[in-house]
Write a structure and sequence with these properties.
Elements: H1 5-26, H2 28-53, H3 58-111, H4 121-131, H5 136-146, H6 151-173, H7 175-184, H8 191-229, H9 235-245, H10 251-268, H11 271-297, H12 305-319, H13 321-346, H14 349-352
């Protein structure tokens, strides 16, 4: 069977795509800092362009934007640290008492239905007292031993931490040239269609990211203020963590909710903390679902939360951590491609008969 020119071109693009996917799979650990730098470069490039339009030299603008991004990341990490520093000793002291209360409530409740179950509170207390101690060094040593972290892994981790800022800086400085070189690889006769396709992908992904960042910021402030009004000592770190985590639909909210419930139980030791968290997070979910996400992100983007979750899980399973990084950009490209294929199908003789 003789292939037509269009079929040969399609086959060539499929081979190129398969080769790229294979390279991602085989070279994942090596490519990780470069892919992270590319994703961050795409997200931070508008800030660099904004500074260059104000006559700031691009190398200086790239340096300023990168330093600002690192400071924001450091600030978020410093907000989360107090949760662990303060709550671990409280966790050690209060969880046994909470388990005793749970056992006292659980036994008579289940007994009404003919179920005779009781918690082995003594064994659980012994486990907690033995494993949730105040010795941070023993925690770190145990974690490193259980993860089997060797010298080569640590060396690679440190190398990536040093390499990433350097690669990100050059990506931000050379972003226009990188885009131009990629465009130059496209055949001239295909350039209009390619530019239109990539423009649609850029608008979709950019609008999604900008809208999602606004939602994250508003929710971080909402949860922090709401928990503070109910008297939570760790309202700010818990609220900021929840706001940042909602970037992953449903899963992030669930993690923030679980953390807030844990903090509420440990601080108040009763029903008050649970009710406070239910009120704040219930209102937050309603505001996000019915106002913030439709208004700031918009259904017209096409990246449904279920699509985002599936893409993160699927790419993470196939390519590991590097797959999680490229899941969102590839999903945006896939949505645009699907929309164009759908338009072609609806205008084709096959559909119209």
């Amino acid at each position: 069977m003789t292939l037509t020119a269009a079929q040969k071109q399609s086959l060539a693009w499929l081979v190129i795509g398969a080769a790229l996917a294979l390279a991602l799979w085989l070279l994942g650990p090596v490519l990780t800092p470069f892919v992270i730098a590319a994703v961050l470069g795409y997200a931070l490039n508008p800030l660099v362009d904004g500074l260059t339009r104000r006559r700031v030299p691009r190398p200086l603008a790239a340096l300023l934007v990168e330093v600002l991004a690192l400071l924001v990341l450091l600030a978020v990490l410093l907000l989360i640290v107090p949760i662990f520093v303060k709550e671990l000793p409280v966790l050690r002291d209060q969880i046994p008492e909470l388990l005793t209360r749970l056992d006292r409530w659980l036994q008579p409740t289940l007994a009404r239905f003919g179920v005779d179950v009781s918690l082995d509170v003594a064994s659980i207390k012994a486990f907690i007292l033995g494993h949730v101690g105040d010795n941070t060094e023993s925690w770190i040593a145990t974690a490193l031993d259980s993860l089997r972290i060797g010298g080569s892994f640590m060396l690679g981790l440190l190398g990536g931490a040093v390499l990433l800022p350097l690669v990100l800086y050059y990506v931000l400085v050379d972003w226009p040239q990188i885009v131009a070189r990629v465009q130059a690889l496209v055949p001239p006769r295909r350039r209009p269609g390619f530019d239109s396709f990539m423009g649609d992908c850029d608008r979709m992904l950019g609008q999604y990211l900008r809208g999602q960042l606004l939602v994250m910021g508003i929710l971080a402030a909402f949860y922090s203020i709401g928990l503070a009004l109910f008297g939570f000592d760790l309202a700010l770190p818990v609220g900021v963590f929840t706001g940042v985590a909602v970037f992953i639909p449903y899963v992030g909210f669930g993690l923030g909710l679980a953390l807030a419930l844990l903090v509420g139980l440990l601080q108040f030791g009763g029903l008050y903390g649970i009710v406070a968290v239910a009120v704040v997070y219930g209102l937050g979910q309603v505001v996000e679902s019915f106002y913030l996400t439709p208004r700031l992100v918009g259904e017209r983007i096409g990246l449904h939360p279920i699509t985002v979750i599936f893409a993160l899980l699927a790419f993470g399973q196939l390519f590991g951590f590097i797959g999680v990084l490229v899941a969102l950009p590839v999903s945006a490209v896939g949505v645009v491609a699907f929309q164009r294929l759908k338009a072609l199908y609806l205008s084709s003789p096959l559909y119209q008969g």
